[in-house]
Write a structure and sequence with these properties.
The chain is mainly alpha-helical. It contains ten helices and six strands.
């Protein structure tokens, strides 16, 4: 068993059994990085990453199953004795008046961010399809542009090819759009309480313009095909549309008190006999 001493810690030459060190987790992480990096570079990089990841996973599991690998580590010196001048256990009191204010005092639950993200994602998708209709490129054009960054061959595709329905591109674009919408929706749930009097202004105007400016600077690296063909006027409209819908949905949800001032043990649901509740010291009701 890990941590079990082979002899008394006070005796000379004592040792403790610890898990044996291994480099497999580091190799596994490096393999995953190559696997994902190959999507933006070359397929051979992803193949190498997959091989390293598989080999590292096998090596890592062999260090654990069927028996964990351990090594005996000698103990140098004696463990210092724990002493205290206190004659009683100090109790951690909670639910008392706080000397510091935690702002905001209320926030939105996770469900509010999910609802806002999904609603905003639908609004953005409708605006993107409207752009495809108005520009006469078709509704599949913006969808193919969104997923083009994962297909190096898309840089040589013609406009007619990008206007056609592509099942793989559609599935990839759907996953990207859904994931991004949920993440941004959760961020809205955390940001909007910071500007409680003007949540729609922050969510519908300020935040979309900020990340549009950021994407304008880095889009050429993330998705060169989209950067070369994007209509920035419609791009801003779609971002603002997402922000307005998500901001309205999130701001209309019921807020919950924050728990920053509550000790971590209580937030994590850990039972602690040293924690005093707000009713400590009161007589129990009959």
């Amino acid at each position: 068993m890990a941590g079990e001493s082979s002899s008394s810690s006070g005796k000379k030459g004592a040792s403790v059994v610890l898990p044996a060190p291994t480099a497999w987790p580091l190799i596994f992480a490096f393999g995953v990085a190559l696997l994902l990096g190959g999507m933006a570079t070359a397929g051979s990089v992803s193949v190498l990453g997959a091989i390293l990841s598989l080999a590292a996973a096998v090596g890592w599991f062999r260090d654990v199953f069927p028996h964990e690998a351990h090594e005996s580590v000698p103990i140098e010196g004696e463990a210092p004795a724990v002493v205290t001048a206190r004659h009683q256990v100090a109790r951690l009191e909670v639910a008392r008046e706080l000397a510091r204010a935690y702002l905001p005092v209320e926030t939105y639950p996770v469900s509010a961010g999910i609802k806002g993200g999904l609603a905003g994602g639908v609004a953005m998708a409708l605006l993107a399809m409207l752009y495809g209709v108005v520009s006469r490129h078709g509704i599949w054009y913006p969808i193919n542009l969104l997923s083009a960054g994962f297909f190096p061959a898309a840089s040589t595709e013609t406009t007619a090819q990008l206007e056609a329905f592509q099942p793989i591109a559609f599935a990839l674009a759907f996953g990207i759009h859904l994931t991004t919408s949920l993440v941004v929706g959760l961020l809205y749930g955390a940001m909007l309480p910071m500007l409680p009097r003007r949540p729609v202004l922050l969510g519908g105007v300020i935040a979309p313009l900020m990340w549009t400016g950021l994407l304008h600077a880095i889009l050429g690296i993330i998705n060169p095909v989209l950067d070369a063909r994007v209509d920035w006027f419609w791009f801003v409209i779609s971002q603002v549309g997402f922000g307005l819908v998500a901001g309205v949905i999130v701001s209309r949800q019921h807020r919950v008190p924050i728990s920053q001032a509550v000790p971590f043990a209580l937030r994590a649901g850990i039972e602690g006999s040293g924690l005093l509740g707000k009713d400590h010291g009161k007589e129990p009701k009959a």
